[in-house]
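FIELD: query
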Amino acid sequence: MSTESVIERAAAVPVGADGTGAPERTADADADSARPVRDEPRGADALPPLGTDPAALVALVREAGHRGTPAPLAETLLVARPLLAEAGLAVPAGLLTVASGPLDVRFTHVDAGNRVGPPGTRGTDDALRVSGTLHRVPWARAADAVVVLAQGPSAGPVLLLLEPADCTRVEGVNLAGEPRDDLVLADAAVPAERVRRIPAALVREGRWRSGLARAALIAGAARRCVELTVAHTTSRVQFGRPLGRFQAVKQEEARLVEEAALIMAAVEAAAAALAEPDTAEFAAWIAAAQASASVAEITRIAHQLHGAIGFTELSPLRLATTRMWSWRDEDGSEHAWFRRIGRHVVEGDGDRLWPQVTGG
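FIELD: result
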């Protein structure tokens, strides 16, 4: 399935305030992606098949970031489906999202005969009762299921697959108007076939995969900022000549292209590393850190060269930059990623840093 087909078909997701409407397609490719579309059905055939090359999935997410696709493609392709597969759960058709957080998790069928540990720490099966709130879940209203990482009742992490009927949704949005809903669980019953006990390493993988997903989205949006800015400075005439002919503008545009290229290089390196489990995590940290760090400079230059028009409601630049500002603070700030990188270097073999960064 082509990138064009996946992007177009995955964009038909319900993101209306009531969670029932589908986004409205407009002729203008730069129109606000939160407007409803009603002419395309959503289904499993809108997604690439399981087993698709991870690097191709990262490229697809970058394209979604470039177009501002109103769908949880990043969460589905780079986080939820890999986690489900590694946990040994069947991967459901359709779009997925991911959440984590402290929850009250208890066994549905407590093993009353167990004499090891406190009462309630053993169950006759893995069926669970779950209460609590998952905050700001990306695209919750548009997802067919939610992959949840939480601490289980047996002092170890568990992976749960929640369905929309399991929780109450309190709708919210991020700075760019993308859905970020709270999911409230009130003693929700999760059957054993939708529960897996997992190692701590899989929880850690969920974190770096989420960081890579956001970095790939930012890489696409950064490319959009470059395109829009160059187009604006080429067409906008000031003092009798295009803005792009002024030396100061050229220098800022060069800096803009440089920052976007840094993100792209880091994301491509992380995508290539996905085939090697030993290097994938560190490469994802670097991609996430670089993407988050470059957002401020990219958005500063793009808006400075656009002037006030870049902040207007219908400006395509505003749609790209507000998403970037939102994404850089989700799944960890640049400082959090840099701390992970620094700790890895200090606690590990420092002689391996340069080969890890350069791929040499």
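FIELD: remark
The radius of gyration is 22 Å.
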